[in-house]
Amino acid sequence: xxxxxxxxxxxLRRLLDSQGGKSLDDSDLLQFAxxxxxxxKGFGEVMLLLGLESWTSDTSGxxxxxxxxxxxxxxxxxxxxxxxxxxxxxMFQVEGVAVPAPSGAATLVAELPLxxxxxxxxxxxxxQWTGQGPAPLxxxxxxxxxxxxxxxxxxxxxxxxxxxxxxxxxxxxxVDVLAVFEDSSSxxxxxxxxxxPGQLNDVSPRRGPPQGGLRVRVETTDLxxxxxxxxxxxxxxxxxPGATSTEAFLKLxxxxxxxxVAIEVRAPNGNGATANAAFTYLRPxxxxxxxxxxxxSQDGQVVTRRDGVNDGVCIGAFPxxxxxxxxRYFELSVGQVGHGGQRALAMGVVALKPESAFLSGxxxxxxxxxEFERAWLAGYDRGGAxxxxxxxxxxxxxxxxxxxxxxxxxxxxGVLWTDAAPGNESELxxxxxxxxxxxxxxxxxxxxxDEELFAVVDLQGSARQVSLVVxxxxxxxxxxxxSAERLPMDSSTTFKSEA
Length: 499
What we know:
Elements (H helix, E strand, L loop, with lengths): L4 H15 L6 H13 L4 H7 L41 E4 L2 E4 L6 E2 L5 E2 L2 E3 L5 E4 L8 E4 L2 E2 L1 E2 L4 E3 L5 H7 L4 E9 L4 E11 L4 E5 L2 E2 L6 E6 L8 E4 L2 E2 L1 E2 L7 E5 L7 E8 L5 E10 L5 E4 L3 E3 L5 E4 L7 E4 L11 E10 L8 E6 L5 H4 L14 E5 L6 E4 L2 E4 L7 H4 L5 E7 L8 E6 L2 E7 L11 E6 L4 E6 L24 E2 L5
Parallel strand pairs: 3-12, 5-12, 14-21
Antiparallel strand pairs: 1-2, 4-6, 6-10, 7-8, 7-11, 9-10, 11-12, 13-15, 15-19, 16-17, 16-20, 18-19, 20-21, 22-25, 23-24, 24-35, 25-34, 26-31, 26-35, 27-28, 27-34, 28-29, 29-30, 30-36, 31-32, 32-33
Helix pairs in contact: 1-2
InterPro entries: B30.2/SPRY_sf, Ig-like_fold, IPT_dom, NHR_dom
């Protein structure tokens, strides 16, 4: 149970002198003791290695009995507790065994000249010695040797499980550093921090608009240092003050496209956490403006008719998302129904520029959605549903679809706009409860793939309340539906917008 390097030297020197052993300098004695401690040599083996063959570990006559040393070989008492840092000799843990530094007394230096001063518990972090003069011959972290490279570089060893358990309840552990030079050594207490590789625990919310600006919270495992940087889709975020080693609040950066993106969280100690597809840029699905006779919910996803027949037009707050398989799509779920006579709701898309006065509120909403220019709508009812394509009106055969007779609470309508491939024309496709009902050719002058389309609903007839279905996607393989029928454009009846 040796407690300090000077005592080790004194003990071995007295032992050699008393037994007539060969003379060794203090440095050699300490290096010898260090090796014997690491290799867990017994006292008898130590004596044999020193050439003192008359001494064995069983001189007391019984195997395993305690060795009784002469009084002159007794070790001095350990230094008293409570000494200030740097006072008295120092012992180190090398491979789990308490041994002195392989020099007289270790030098305690104020600042560790090593970068970085932290690394993964799995090892492998490359370190660079930055001190003046020669780099150390050996470098120990928590008693384990680092692999030495050229130019004063070292590789961090893995941290043993028992050392991790000593670290604390957190996933970071501060350990001692021992640097061994040719004729001296230096020791730094708790100067290197081992951290467990971080993991992203939570992102809230997980979706946000491409235009950015949303307040987002990220939570990680303990990174061992306060979060200093967060990247979403490779873009650095503005962090709010007060980030900790497990939590940060940030401002969502602007994105050029929708979709799933990666989040990368970084700490100044080199630790971090990365997760692919951890956040989704998604255009919000909500109504932006509505007529005077309808009310919008606070989130803009539910619209309810208060009274009257007209003034129930609603426009989407944002352009419709482009679906991975192509086209634009949205869904409506009917919440409340009442007596609507022969009228029915209408739904479709309208081509508007983002700066449109209809969107900004600079222009009054029309009495009916079909008054919009460049709107493609299906619904209403005049002895059958109507299709309105940029002012051109035609009837939909009642055998295919008649919303005035089929709307009830819980009915789900889907509206799909197919972007035309070269040589083809776009179509407005209506689904009801997952089944394709009718496919309507948009005709000439229809919006191109690059134009922004907004959802439009005219809440008439028996439907008193509808809500947008967030995250809806078109039913699988709509082209294979047997119930749908492609309708030719009937231009015998036309409607010219005055708006």
